[in-house]
Amino acid sequence: MSSIHSRLTKEETFYIKRIEGLYQKAARIQRTLFTPFVSPQILANLTSLEKSNELDINIFRINPFAEQVIMAFVPKGMLVSDEEYPVEVLEIKVSSPSMITHRDVLGSLTGLGIKRELIGDIFLDETGIFIVVTDQMVSFLKDNLLMIGRHHVTLEETNIERVKMIEPKGEDRVIAAASKRLDLLISKTFNLSRSKSQLLFGQGKVKCNHLVMNHYKREMTEGDLLSVRGSGRFKLLEELGTTRKGNIQLKIRVFK
After folding, report:
1. How far is CA 155 from CA 21, 146, 147, 183, in A?
2. What global pTM score does this model have?
3. Choice between 134 and 41, residue whose per-residue pLDDT is larger
């Protein structure tokens, strides 16, 4: 944890303290309270909450590929349903959706001066372009997000179910490796040397299941999602067997 914590910015450190304060308030008033969106980096550093058992901590992730989550601090004996989380989904309506990229949307949102914690993940697929937001941002975005790049857009609220199962487009491949170690699979998937793959961990560029990885010797398991900043991400689907040379054959899905 300490090596992750050392890479936090002042803003991230302050945000962690805010979340800790919210937890303490929920414990004091014995009422369920919700955080804004929490990034994997912040989530991994909330070590003080791991040691406390005053409240139950629930985590809402709208989609298996979503990085941003919302936490609920729930008094013991109480339950919270998905419908209670302060999350809404906005669909971007534009004449040429194929011309809009994830970077375009994020850039336009940033240009409005919106705090990152109020915006969740952005999803694009053949059915549309969607932004996950806290409920307090809906009216502001509908009134102010009028352009993305050179494209005029409008925003409409839509059912949260529209994004729950969206999966990025990917290509299935079969690779052979001596083991399922992270550095080895990164090397095989992205055609990098082992030494360069290992350096990525020290630079904080590797995440497994949305959490920053510091140790390249950890092995992947089926269903793990690995992302490498600057290269891409892939999911380990299944182990197919071994080659004549004793290497493991693995089926992976590389996302574009």
Report:
1. 34, 8, 11, 42
2. 0.74
3. 134
Query: Alpha-carbon torsion 206, 40, 9, 132, what sign?
Result: positive
Using alpha carbons only, how large is the chain's radius of gyration in Å? 20
Structure confidence at residue 1 (pLDDT):
36
More confident residue, 92 or 170: 92
Per-residue pLDDT, 53: 86
- The pair of three-digit structure tokens given for residue 177, joined into one six-digit string: 């490796």
Residue 81's SS3 state is coil
Residues 6+ apart with CB under 8 A from 231: 186, 190, 192
Structural domains in the chain, sorted by start: 2-80 (3.30.1370.160), 87-164 (3.30.70.330), 170-255 (3.10.290.10)
Question: And the tokens for 43?
Answer: 């989530």
The one-character DSSP state at 11 is H
Number of separate helices (H) and strands (E) present in the chain:
9, 15
- Residue-wise pLDDT tens digits, 54-100: 999 999 999 988 989 999 999 999 999 999 999 999 999 999 888 89
Question: Whole-angstrom Cα distance, residue 95 to residue 109?
Answer: 19
Order of strands, sheet of 128-134, starting from the edge strand that comes earlier in the sequence: 119-125, 128-134, 87-93, 154-158
